[in-house]
Amino acid sequence: MNTSMTSPRYDLSYLNQVFQGNREMIDNIITLFLQQVPEYIREMEECVKKNEPLSLHPLAHKAKSSISMLGIKDMESDILRIENDSKHLRNLDELPNLVHRVKENCQIVYYQLQQQLQRAS
Prior knowledge:
Layout: H1 13-18, H2 23-49, H3 56-69, H4 73-87, H5 95-120
Helix pairs in contact: 2-3, 2-5, 3-4, 4-5
């Protein structure tokens, strides 16, 4: 996976607007994402392995706001589906693939955001 050549999968427009370009605040949000969301996704993988779809809902819900604030559209639609389908026990056969896709996107975005922080410092 060549993530350095991939165009950014995130969009900081919302954060720039909300924080009026305050780099420190934006970097804090990025850092929180980097610390929290991969852990939520790891826990979602565990839920899938244990066949505990109802446990996916709160994890997806926690990840949703960070994903949304960072404008990660690919992950946002998948995380919403995970949240809704696990809550209502729908399309359960699709959940493992959705979680896997979110994980793959997260890995790329994680790397890209780390690069963003390094460039900003």
